[in-house]
Design goal:
single chain, 104 residues, 29% helix, 38% strand, 4-stranded antiparallel sheet
Length: 104
């Protein structure tokens, strides 16, 4: 499994994860071959950290070619600054009891 960690900063007036644009992007994300899942963490002050999991680096690269134009069109207008790629690499330990369970 391959992971990508990004940080993005959005306006704080409305939670971006509740927006139509964000949901549209996440739905397209989930339809990409090799997509395993994502964790989106609200760090406050409009900052979101996203960990996206792929079956392989090849799947991640192929998805990026599809998703990048959509990010520019749909999410960039909502961002206060360009997103930052913080890390990519193999997942060396995965211990989620049930990744489909809603957070409490």
């Amino acid at each position: 499994m391959h992971a990508i960690l990004r940080e993005a900063t959005y306006a704080t007036d409305t939670p971006v994860h509740e927006s139509r644009e964000f949901k549209e992007f996440q739905a397209l994300h989930a339809r990409q071959p090799g997509y395993v899942g994502s964790y989106v963490i609200d760090a406050g002050d409009g900052r979101l950290f996203t960990v996206t999991l792929w079956e392989s680096p090849t799947h991640a690269a192929a998805a990026r070619a599809v998703l990048e134009p959509v990010v520019r069109r749909v999410l960039h207008p909502l961002m206060n600054a360009p997103s930052r790629l913080l890390a990519t690499g193999p997942v060396v330990r995965h211990n989620a009891a049930d990744a489909t369970a809603a957070p409490s």
